[in-house]
Amino acid sequence: MEIFAASDADITAEVRAADIRATFSPPTPAQPPRRWKGEPIRLSGVTKSFGARPVLRRLDLDVPAGQFLAVVGRSGGGKTTLMRLICGLDSATSGDVFVGEARVAGLMPQVRLLFQDARLAPWQRVIGNVGIARGPAWREQAHAALQDVGLADRGRDWPSVLSGGQRQRVALARALVSRPGVLLLDEPFGALDALTRAEMHRLTERIWTEHGFTVVLITHDVAEAVALADRVVVLRQGEIALDVAVDLLRPRPEADGAEAADLRRRILAAV
Amino acid sequence: MEIFAASDADITAEVRAADIRATFSPPTPAQPPRRWKGEPIRLSGVTKSFGARPVLRRLDLDVPAGQFLAVVGRSGGGKTTLMRLICGLDSATSGDVFVGEARVAGLMPQVRLLFQDARLAPWQRVIGNVGIARGPAWREQAHAALQDVGLADRGRDWPSVLSGGQRQRVALARALVSRPGVLLLDEPFGALDALTRAEMHRLTERIWTEHGFTVVLITHDVAEAVALADRVVVLRQGEIALDVAVDLLRPRPEADGAEAADLRRRILAAV
Amino acid sequence: APALAQEKVVRIGYQKYGTLILLKNKGLLESRLKPLGYSVKWAEFPAGPQLLEALNAGAIDFGNTGEAPPIFAQAAGAPLVYVGFEPAAPQGEAILVPKDSPLKTVADLKGKTVALNKGSNVHYLLVKALEKAGVAYADIKTAFLTPADARAAFERGSVDAWAIWDPFQAAAEQTIAARPLADGTGIVSNYQFYFSTRAFADQAPQVVDAVLAGVAEIGAWVKGNPKAAAAEFSPLIGIPAPILEVALARQQYDVKPITPEVAAAQQQVADAFLALGLIPKPIRIADALRAPKS
Amino acid sequence: MSPTAQSESLALGAVPSVARQEAAEAGLDAGLLGRVRLAALGRALLPWALPLGVLALWQAAASLGFLSSRVLPAPGDVALAFWRTLKDGTLLTNISVSTGRALTGLAIGGGIGFALGVLNGVWRPAETALDSTLQMLRNVPHLAIIPLVILWFGIGEEAKIFLVAVGVAFPIYLNTFHGIRTVDRGLVEMARVYGLSSTALFWRIVLPGALPSVLVGLRYALGIMWLTLIVAETISSTEGIGYMTMNAREFLQTDVVVLGVLAYALLGKLADSLTRAIEQRALAWNPAYQPGARGVA
Amino acid sequence: MSPTAQSESLALGAVPSVARQEAAEAGLDAGLLGRVRLAALGRALLPWALPLGVLALWQAAASLGFLSSRVLPAPGDVALAFWRTLKDGTLLTNISVSTGRALTGLAIGGGIGFALGVLNGVWRPAETALDSTLQMLRNVPHLAIIPLVILWFGIGEEAKIFLVAVGVAFPIYLNTFHGIRTVDRGLVEMARVYGLSSTALFWRIVLPGALPSVLVGLRYALGIMWLTLIVAETISSTEGIGYMTMNAREFLQTDVVVLGVLAYALLGKLADSLTRAIEQRALAWNPAYQPGARGVA
Ligand SMILES: Nc1ncnc2c1ncn2[C@@H]1O[C@H](COP(=O)(O)OP(=O)(O)OP(=O)(O)O)[C@@H](O)[C@H]1O
Ligand SMILES: Nc1ncnc2c1ncn2[C@@H]1O[C@H](COP(=O)(O)OP(=O)(O)OP(=O)(O)O)[C@@H](O)[C@H]1O
Ligand SMILES: [Mg+2]
Ligand SMILES: [Mg+2]
């Protein structure tokens, strides 16, 4: 019976390799980022329509491994759709999506997606939701991740009693704890206040720097895009209206210089 | 059988009165805002705990009729809880909440709440969700509201195919179409891009000006609070950390003068 | 151990009311069969049709019922053979009416509703009684009900009369003073029959005979000690002893191999059922008799 | 397992669009198109493969003498019985009489079960007072209470319809109750905050939310409806499919018994297809109920 | 209706905290506290009010001679029969024999129904191939296929257990299937994106999501389990509660019949309470299943 016979073998092998690597290389935060673990993403001529409604039109996009890409665009502009194509939840009407070497057809094991809605399993406690994949030592990792997002004391709660922002942070913890090759973040900070948001920015940036995966971040906050990303893409009417590199030194303080302000203005104009 | 015997009589009377009023007073947008329709909100010594966790501590708050109040605070700070107390979905552990003349005990018919999550009924089409209360001429009103939020062509769709921001706008349309005495908005613009957000600001402001209901708006965007509200309250650890009036002339352009910037800085510091 | 493993079994089906259950209870059979290398496995059935259903499926080797079920079984091709009968007991079935019923004779049944078990011995009784009274079968209404249901319908007054056999007959007579319009006397025979499968009767005739001998022994005992038998029977089936005594007294206990007269009477029943459309094709009782002993 | 194969058996709701797309591409090629049509035909026939296979095996076993025809007649014999009873009209009479009883019982019992499910689902005090009793009643065997039923309703149609009604009431009750209890509370809150009257709340939120579960109850009840008849029609019947079957069993007419069983099976299938049609219409908003939908995994 | 009264009967999940708060306030006053305890006792007894009321009416009707004791014996007679069968041990033997059969059948049939529900729920091809057949089989009346069952399993325990297994399999199948099909697809997507293997997906997402519905199926099956025995124990039995009841019915021992019916009712209630306990434990995350929860409206 092959009902549930996903490519488990591959996944286990992956996990085991990562495990061994983790065991033999002691964590050294001072090291330069291990970018090699991230995987490139490539879209070529991707069109996606729902019925007669075209959402993405012949999109071409190259994201090098380890890049932090921010995607900005109007509501209903196809950003979530783009994410679903990259992780293989949907398939393009035409055109090809590649992650790493492989053409995307079906779910990609190295890609993780933080959904726009939190999608916490109501029957798993908060800690169980963070460590949903139950890798080795998941409990400690999940607990550490909860601490990172400021919810260390909520691990034993049911998700249903959390506030909106707390749920979003649990989802963020779950995404960050998974340490993937490609991380897709669909508005991960939308329900957070300014201070919490800044903390989460620093957290995301730190883990990305340590781990070196490729990140695609959807955000409506242009300042956020400029503060976090290596490159910002504006999606308008299914096409790329602007594709701009953010060449600012890290760490970047919240309010940057004139260069950042100029960038923000350019991006806002393109949305 | 009294199972479903809410205070329908009262509601119907209300609706009928409103109806008659609407029939006899032609819509005149040039008129000064009919503030008298809004109702005041008063909290006195309100404490709310979940189990051993106190969320609101002896809160006192007076919102005059027709005021546009913004509430800002950290994630998990009890903002949503406050809203639920005002509209009667939850009851305070101690203290009293008043809306208009009445002490809140059970649902208040004159209060409408836009929930933090969109809460669209999946089995109602978009237009059916907007006109969920099915007042007289609901279809026309719902259609107009959808047009206002930029989703005129999506009325016949199921909510499940909408993007995150589109759902939020449907929920906003539903809240605005209901023309209540008190409107509670729990992060209504969180999933919207900057441009759409500005449009929705203008829409909300316009309908509030026309209709004169009391508004409590929860937002994480301090600029938004300053741009929209008459008054901003910062909720910190269950208490009011800042309560400041925004005495800026309307209409207020996005980027205001130094006064607004100063206000923003003060509020941010208090969060 | 090998001897035990080779011990053969005769599977006997019985009903709650009849001689076989007493035979089982008294434990008379086991000693008779032991010398033949057989042990007994008893199986209880709620009624004759179910018993023959099991016989048909090869789940039992021996059993007894009234006169109606074997006719349907044979019509269905069941491999049963008649191996014995108890003498006629025409009083053991009757057509009852409530005690204050205006009906006085069978002829009064015209246009009335009679409750009965479809295709049972009382079905035959009703046909024959009507025939004798000169009432066409089509002129009465029938309500086909099992005894328990019929009793409820009878007491409620949903039916005017009830064709029923013992011990229900005796119970109705004694507890609600139901009045018989007619019993089987002079109309039908009401035999009880013993059956085996063709294969078993051929393969182990001595066992069949031994069981019949056991039946005869217990029959003789019941006949001699009706009170004791009723007392012993009563808790087994939950019918008060006084009622049982009446019912037992109306039975005959003298098991005999099938005689040509009995076979002919049974053939009449079969033909009557054919005429009623209860069986789809004619059957010959003679085909289901035990081969004469050589 | 290749990624493509994986998407075939494991992918989610999204995949139908892949299938559609593939079909569209295939449309360019006439040969492929033919193959696609053939595949669709295969999909339509697949549900019947198992029953027909069993039928074939059965006929084979009967022909080769593995099965005693006394106990399980050959399909040919059953077909003959079918033809016979069809010709003399008894089969259709029996089915139509039973259908009448079944539907009347369903209307009454289903209505009561639904009403009780709603009542207990929306109103806790009612649940406290009634649910226990209903759970006890549910467990009372029909066969045992027939004398009581006769006492109450006589031996006419009422008794039979009563039994059917009792039989169908409980699955509908249980599933309605469950469906209502698990309606999304967030939506109920929303509806009340938006001033929906209790009636409106029921029709616009509670009922649609409970509907999938109610339909499961209906589906089960449609089976029970026929099954109860086999008990009900032992009460002074001369017509009806339950009567036909049990009467034939009494008289060991196995061909008619099997015919009856097959009739039951087909009536059950019919009722089930009906429920599915209702589901597809009434739950059009729910992707899980649409024809193109796949399993969850 | 005043707002307060409204909140009593109509308010949502939130209201238990009101109740708790009221209780706490009441706690300050000893008299009130007593009243609160009394109210709690009342709530615990309320479910039994209706059955006990019926019992009282029944006794009254019997005492006043409205009921023929031959058709429906007085409660006193039933109590006597209870005492009699309890003393001679037959009641307990019958119940324990039946319980053994019931649980064995439940384990087998429930297991198969669950497995098929899961299989067809997660894998569309299986559904296409099997569901139709199952819907047909579901509709085959037990009473009619007893000859076949005897052919396959003889007249021993196997036949009875088989019938119970068949009876319980279908409600569990239907509800498992429905539960799995309506699991939140968003969560399934999430789980797959987070690399859960199919087994993990099943245990962590699909099964918990389907559990409420599976438990409804179990609840129904626990009733069917007992009910089937009344048919199964007509196959050559001398023990069992179904045998006891039907045998008594055969011989018009109405007191024993009613005793049997009552035993059925209580066993059903017991089984139901068990399922509720399971629900409250297994669905602790779901506010709709907690004891304090109110109806939706
Ligand atoms: N399954 C679907 N069926 C039909 N239309 C869909 C479907 N999914 C998305 N759409 C439509 O595609 C368009 C793009 O949706 P998408 O979710 O990608 O937007 P988005 O850029 O993420 O917007 P937001 O910022 O509001 O989340 C929307 O108009 C949406 O209604
Ligand atoms: N039903 C409940 N049971 C227990 N705790 C709860 C419940 N509802 C809310 N809480 C807790 O109360 C606190 C305040 O929640 P609330 O939803 O009011 O926050 P909030 O200010 O709206 O936050 P956010 O901005 O993240 O939405 C949180 O810590 C939350 O976990
Ligand atoms: Mg989106
Ligand atoms: Mg909130």
* Share in helix of chain A: 25-40%
What form of chain C results from the Cα inertia axes? globular
Strand count, sense and barrel status of the largest sheet of chain A are:
6 strands, mixed
How many runs of DSSP E, i.e. beta strands of chain C?
10
- Please name the two chains that share the biggest interface, counting residues whose Cβ lies under 8 Å from a Cβ on the partner chain: D-E, 94 and 94 residues
Question: How does the helix and strand content of chain C classify structurally?
Answer: alpha/beta
* DSSP strand content of chain C: 15-25%
The radius of gyration over CA of chain C amounts to 19 Å
Family (chains A, B): Belongs to the ABC transporter superfamily.
Enzyme class (chains A, B): hydrolase
Pfam families (chains A, B): ABC_tran
Keywords (chains A, B): ATP-binding, Cell membrane, Hydrolase, Membrane, Nucleotide-binding, Translocase, Transport
Write up what this structure looks like.
The complex is a heteropentamer, with 2 copies of chain A (271 residues), 1 copy of chain C (294 residues) and 2 copies of chain D (297 residues). The longest helix of chain A is centred in the C-terminal third of the chain and has 18 residues, at 194-211. Chain A has helices at residues 8-24, 79-87, 126-130, 138-148, 164-177, 194-211, 222-228, 258-270, and strands at 41-50, 53-63, 68-73, 94-99, 102-103, 111-114, 182-186, 214-218, 231-236, 239-245. Helix content of chain A is 35%, strand content 23%. With 271 residues, chain A is of the alpha/beta class. In chain C, 44% of the residues lie in helices and 19% in strands. Chain C is built from 13 helices and 10 strands. Chain C has a 5-stranded mixed sheet with strand order 2-1-3-10-4, sandwiched between helices. In chain C, helix 8 packs across helix 12. Chain C is globular. The two termini of chain C are 35 Å apart. Chain D is mostly helical. Chain D folds into 2 domains: 3-63; 75-289, MetI-like (MetI-like fold, Orthogonal Bundle). Chain D is flat, with a radius of gyration of 24 Å. Mean pLDDT of chain D is 80; it is low at 1-30. Chains in contact: A-B, A-D, A-E, B-D, B-E, C-D, C-E, D-E. At the D-E interface, helix 3, helix 5, helix 6, helix 7 and helix 8 of D face helix 3, helix 5, helix 6, helix 7 and helix 8 of E. Bound molecules: adenosine-5'-triphosphate (ATP) (2 copies) and magnesium ion (MG) (2 copies). One adenosine-5'-triphosphate (ATP) sits between chains A (50, 55, 73, 75-81, 116) and B (161-166, 191). Chains A, B: Its EC number is 3.6.3.-. Chains A, B: Keywords: ATP-binding, Cell membrane, Hydrolase, Membrane, Nucleotide-binding, Translocase, Transport. Chains A, B: Belongs to the ABC transporter superfamily.
